[in-house]
Specification:
It holds the Pfam family Aminotran_1_2. It is an enzyme of class 2 (transferase). Its cofactor is pyridoxal 5'-phosphate. One of its GO terms (molecular function) is pyridoxal phosphate binding. Keywords: Aminotransferase, Pyridoxal phosphate, Pyruvate, Transferase. By secondary structure, this protein is an alpha/beta fold. The chain folds into two domains: 5-48 and 303-416, Aspartate Aminotransferase, domain 1 (Alpha-Beta Complex), CATH 3.90.1150.10; 74-297, 3-Layer(aba) Sandwich (Aspartate Aminotransferase, domain 2), CATH 3.40.640.10. The protein is built from 14 helices and 16 strands. The strands form three sheets. Strands 2, 3, 4, 5, 8, 9, 10 and 11 form an eight-stranded mixed beta sheet that branches. Strands 6-7-12-13-16-15 form a six-stranded mixed beta sheet. It has a two-stranded parallel ribbon with strand order 1-14. Bound molecules: pyridoxal-5'-phosphate (PLP).
């Protein structure tokens, strides 16, 4: 069988695939002795699930909507009515007035990104070749394999700030960006994998550059404001022309619904709508129905601020305490990226004598699943020790699982230390 180049590219082992395979094999056997610290699944929180159940039940019992939900295609990026209601509802959280034609729904924000990244990178209509600027890497694993053309990412070495014992932070490096080769800018805020929440002044600098160079500025708010709002004390994003914001229902605890929302200028929404018509025919109906119900009841804001933020804040503190105690016991040399938001801990082991891929493989043999950090640096051409010395862990697991995982990681790292 001869495969196309794009099929070949996708079937090469990539980060997302290895993560999803781990998830599958970990869950298919006994889970008793497994520490699954790899995935990005939100925690199932019964308090939030009860509220979601009520929303679904009210949709099921209201008039004819179930038949229409099951029996009708909607438009490629959602019904006009739901888009308009969404614009009116979300505008106030982004400090602006939005219109329905500035909103588009997709089957997950991952689905939206595959269209966005391919709209603004690769071979352009004038024959030029443009890249996607990832302003601070490490960046989300899910962008890397989405593009149909090769070598489309551009990334600079980040600045590293040491901000306390065993804590550091990546910061935007404004030097040496080849603006004339860039087609768009993409960042997640908070960033998966590091938990970085980009400072407002850096974001404003990027925004001004994006306007000067006529580039869309894509900001992925999967973990950001207004839901699930896991941004700690950092300032929320406000929408401005030229920005493309993406929201997701996944990290509030509804990854099975597959709903992503894009907020952008109408010109960009109409490009995305063409992609959606060809690639999806239409976005699914359940997510839109839930959106309408959520906006009416202000559901997600309440859940985010009163359930998710306290829950994840508490989980994070517990995980940090466990990891710090165990790493100290084994005298592990490490620093953790300041966890400002999101679900993950990004850990750097300076002078790690094995690579992070070998660390991942050794941990896996002991039923501890982590994600090797090497996946998260697309577009970086400069040598950088962090590409081989970092790992990502989710902190959304229970105490015992985190302790077991931390103990095994600490044992392996200290055993192999120089
Ligand atoms: C930063 C980020 N963006 C986007 C996504 C995709 O989310 P979904 O397609 O479920 O909306 C994820 C999922 O893990 C993510 O971590």
């Amino acid at each position: 069988m001869i495969l196309s180049r794009i099929a070949k590219k996708l079937t090469r082992s990539n980060g997302i695939q290895s993560l999803m395979e781990d998830l599958g094999s970990a869950w298919s056997g006994s889970t008793e002795n497994i520490a699954f610290l790899g995935g990005g699944n939100p925690t199932r929180i019964p308090e939030a699930e009860t509220i979601y159940r009520k929303s679904v039940e009210s949709i099921l019992t209201s008039g004819k909507s179930l038949e229409s939900l099951l029996g009708d295609y909607t438009s490629p990026v959602g019904s006009d009515e739901t888009r308009q209601l969404t614009a009116e509802y979300l505008g106030k959280f982004f400090g602006t007035t939005l219109q329905g034609n500035q909103i588009a729904f997709f089957n997950g924000s991952q689905n939206a990104y595959s269209f966005l990244l391919n709209s603004f990178s690769g071979t352009m209509e004038d024959g030029s070749f443009k890249r996607i600027l990832l302003p601070v890497i490490p960046e989300y694993i899910g962008y890397a394999d989405q593009t149909w053309e090769e070598d489309v990412f551009f990334a600079n070495l980040p600045i590293i700030e040491n901000i306390g014992p065993n804590r550091f932070r990546y910061k935007l490096n404004k030097e040496n960006i080849a603006w004339e080769t860039i087609g768009c800018i993409a960042l997640s805020r908070p960033t998966n994998p590091t938990g970085n929440v980009m400072d407002m002044e850096d974001l404003e600098w990027l925004y001004q550059e994006s306007r000067k160079n006529d580039l869309p500025l894509l900001i992925d708010l999967a973990y950001g404001n207004p839901f699930p709002n896991l941004i700690g004390q950092k300032e929320p994003i406000q929408w401005k022309p030229g920005m493309v914001l993406s929201l997701s229902f996944s990290k509030v605890g509804l990854p099975g619904v597959r709903l992503g929302i894009i907020i952008a200028d109408t010109e960009i929404i109409s490009v995305l709508s063409s992609f959606a018509a060809v690639g999806n025919l239409a976005v699914g109906n359940w997510g839109q129905a839930l959106a309408k119900s959520f906006w009416k009841e202000d559901t997600l804001i309440g859940i985010s601020n009163h359930i998710l933020r306290p829950y994840y804040g508490n989980k994070l503190q517990i995980a940090l305490e466990i990891i710090e105690e165990i790493f100290a016991k084994y005298k592990v040399q490490y620093t953790i990226h300041e966890p400002e938001g999101g679900f993950f801990l990004w850990i750097h082991f300076p002078n790690l004598p094995i690579s992070n891929i070998e660390l991942y493989q050794t941990c896996k043999k002991e039923n501890v699943y982590i994600v090797s950090g090497h996946y998260f640096f697309p577009g970086l051409k400069t040598q950088f020790s962090h590409t081989e010395e970092c790992i990502r862990l989710t902190y959304c697991r229970d105490r015992k699982e985190i302790a077991r995982g931390a103990e095994i990681i600490a044992r392996i790292v200290s055993r192999t230390a120089k």
